[in-house]
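hiii so um. not sure if this is the right channel but i have a protein structure encoded as tokens and i wanna go backwards to a sequence. like what aa goes where. can anyone help
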């Protein structure tokens, strides 16, 4: 598939782009021969286009991350000290990791066991969970249910069970998962419609927008915004760097 996309992109570029000014000194026949040579090379080596696209994406991602650093400092209290957010690990930890997640996100599901391993490896780590449903109505429903479970004192168990659930998250499925962790489903349903729950989710979206976060999972560790699932060793390194650089609230 990548080869096909790259080939199509190469042909599109050749058709749409004029030759460089230096090449315009050649007559039309020579220019066409140059195009044919370039086309043949790109068709034979589409990885060149793939590498160029990946390089551009990496530069754009780095630019977004650098821009986010300036925003993180000004939003730190909202990111790490919002009393509505649930916390895993050490509530009084010396370093805070913030995760924006969606219960239907496959990469979030992959990241969850890695995050739990990180908490075991880093006993002083504080993990703040930002309910950030972006994958449709079922995601919103799951986040509403998770937040509504807080008064029953079973958020952590419910959160882990929802993240581990495969397939659709219909209301019936969410209630089935809720019952499995000992939640009172009648009370849960009643709590899900509270306006303050919608406000909390809206506030998470507004915060994400300020940081140009548009995908899940997205992690904030120290001054670093890291999009996508990350391996355990990289997370450990980022936590260590944040701890070493910390001079105040981390």
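sure thing!! here u go:
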């Amino acid at each position: 598939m990548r080869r096909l996309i790259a080939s199509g992109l190469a042909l599109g570029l050749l058709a749409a782009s004029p030759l460089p000014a230096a090449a315009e000194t050649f007559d039309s026949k020579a220019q066409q021969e140059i195009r044919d040579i370039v086309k043949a090379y790109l068709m034979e080596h589409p990885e060149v286009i793939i590498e160029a696209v990946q390089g551009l994406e990496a530069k754009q991602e780095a630019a977004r991350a650098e821009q986010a650093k300036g925003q993180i400092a000004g939003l730190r209290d909202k990111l790490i000290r919002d009393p509505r957010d649930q916390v895993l690990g050490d509530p009084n930890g010396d370093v805070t990791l913030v995760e924006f997640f969606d219960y239907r996100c496959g990469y979030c599901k992959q990241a969850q066991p890695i995050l739990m391993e990180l908490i075991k490896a880093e006993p002083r780590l504080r993990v703040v969970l930002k309910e950030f449903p972006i994958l449709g109505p079922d995601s919103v429903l799951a986040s509403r249910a998770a937040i509504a479970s807080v008064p029953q004192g079973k958020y952590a168990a419910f959160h882990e069970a929802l993240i581990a659930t495969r397939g659709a998250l219909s209301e019936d499925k969410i209630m089935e998962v809720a019952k499995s962790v000992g939640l009172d489903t009648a009370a849960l349903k009643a709590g899900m419609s509270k306006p303050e729950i919608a406000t909390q989710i809206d506030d998470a979206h507004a915060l994400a927008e300020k940081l140009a976060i548009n995908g899940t999972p997205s992690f904030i560790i120290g001054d670093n915004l890291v999009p996508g699932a990350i391996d355990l060793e990289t997370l450990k390194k980022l936590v260590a760097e944040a701890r070493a650089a910390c001079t105040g609230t981390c």
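oh and The radius of gyration is 24 Å.
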